[in-house]
């Protein structure tokens, strides 16, 4: 997946906002250090020279554009999102709302082929575009977690990527569409998607040229992420935070809709393990000096907890080894 680059960008800070950029084509041992550093500091980085062909990205983007330009009654045929399918304004089952519409799909090819019947007038084109995109971004996600494992000197280098590659993986794909804002005089920016961290292992995000994404730094500062349609943004999810015993931290993020003259479309691949997988710190990450911060739980268990709370609530606290309710 990783292509050689002629102009080696290495890891550098994007001037305005300090977000790290990692060139996935640099030499491996250097690369794994850069990935770890970015994931420790921000839980977030921009990945360049990722090797995913533009054509794979644009085919899915075009399918998204076609779908979201349909009439609301046509789009509703692909919903409601419970949790999969077409959703409009409602996020999750607990009354969270956002100024967006979306498609949420399980990455299982059978489920995609089934869903595509109500999503597209040409279901084969739609499912091919989705499957090709998932295959490509799954490789990016696996590459990143392998680099993390290498950098942390985890003996089984593929321990995490094996979960993502498992045929029973519970990974999902989400395409969000934030329609343009009507008035450019709107003073209060509307919340597109409220603050949260992703529950899964890793998220690979791509958006069009419209901004709005913000990430929260460890000091609690919200910083805007300049959009880049050619590159991917990588986010550490809660499950990877647990597997690394808190060394890598999941990133809190949100999408604000101020003055969007054009609609924002983003596509996220959420890399997850199978439902029955146990999530716990990798043995290498636990020692007498650094005991496990979390109790073991299955991914199904964690998802259930995630879906039982509203967006902004931290679900990881429920699984801390020394949670006050467990004493
Ligand atoms: C955030 C990341 C993914 O978009 C998602 C979201 C899910 C949903 O929209 O159904 C959740 C949200 C996300 C976290 C908390 C729960 C679940 C909405 C919500 C209130 C698909 C996911 O896996 O978790």
Which small compounds were modeled alongside the protein?
Answer: gibberellin A4
Instruction: Report the end-to-end length measured between terminal Cα atoms.
Output: 47 Å
| Structural shape | globular
Structure annotation, total helices: 8
User: What characterizes the major β-sheet?
Assistant: 9 strands, mixed
Q: Name the CATH superfamily classification of one domain.
A: B-lactam Antibiotic, Isopenicillin N Synthase, Chain
- Work out the radius of gyration: 19 Å
Please state the structural category: alpha+beta
Name the helix and strand elements from N-terminus to C-terminus, one letter apiece: EEHEHHEEHHHEEEEEEHEEEEH
Q: Unreliable segments (pLDDT under 50, ≥5 consecutive)? A: 1-16
What is the mean predicted local confidence, pLDDT?
92
Number of strands: 15
Helix content: 25-40%
CATH topology of one domain: Jelly Rolls
The CATH architecture term of one domain is Sandwich
User: What percentage of the residues does DSSP assign to strands (E)?
Assistant: 15-25%
Can you list the strand order of the major beta sheet? 1-2-3-11-8-13-6-5-4
Under CATH at level 1, the class of one domain stands as Mainly Beta
């Amino acid at each position: 997946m990783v292509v050689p680059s002629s102009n080696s960008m290495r890891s550098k800070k994007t001037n305005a906002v300090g977000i790290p950029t990692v060139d996935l084509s640099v030499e491996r041992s250097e690369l794994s250090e850069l990935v770890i550093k970015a994931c420790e500091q921000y839980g977030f980085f921009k990945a360049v020279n990722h090797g995913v062909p533009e054509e794979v990205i644009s085919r899915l983007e075009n399918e998204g554009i076609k779908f979201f330009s349909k009439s609301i009654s046509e789009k509703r045929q692909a919903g409601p999102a419970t949790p999969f399918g077409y959703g409009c304004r409602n996020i999750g089952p607990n009354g969270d709302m956002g100024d967006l519409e979306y498609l949420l799909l399980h990455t299982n090819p059978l489920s995609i082929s089934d869903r595509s019947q109500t999503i597209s007038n040409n279901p084969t084109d739609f499912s091919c575009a989705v499957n090709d995109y998932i295959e490509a971004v799954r490789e990016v996600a696996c590459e990143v977690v392998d680099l993390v494992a290498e950098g942390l000197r985890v003996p089984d280098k593929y321990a995490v990527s094996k979960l993502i590659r498992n045929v029973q993986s519970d990974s999902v794909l989400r395409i969000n569409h934030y329609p343009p804002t009507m008035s450019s005089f709107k003073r209060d920016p509307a919340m597109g998607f409220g603050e949260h961290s992703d529950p899964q292992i890793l998220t690979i995000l791509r958006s069009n040229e419209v901004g709005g994404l913000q990430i929260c730094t460890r000091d609690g500062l919200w910083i805007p992420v300049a959009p880049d349609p050619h590159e991917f943004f990588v986010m550490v999810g809660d499950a990877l935070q647990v597997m690394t015993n808190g060394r890598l931290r999941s990133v809190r993020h949100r999408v604000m809709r101020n003055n969007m003259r054009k609609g924002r479309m983003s596509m996220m691949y959420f890399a997850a393990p199978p439902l029955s997988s146990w999530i716990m710190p990798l043995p290498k990450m636990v020692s007498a000096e650094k005991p496990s911060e979390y109790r073991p739980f299955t991914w199904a268990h964690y998802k259930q907890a995630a879906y039982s709370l509203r967006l902004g609530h931290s679900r990881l606290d429920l699984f801390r080894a020394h949670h006050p309710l467990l004493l």
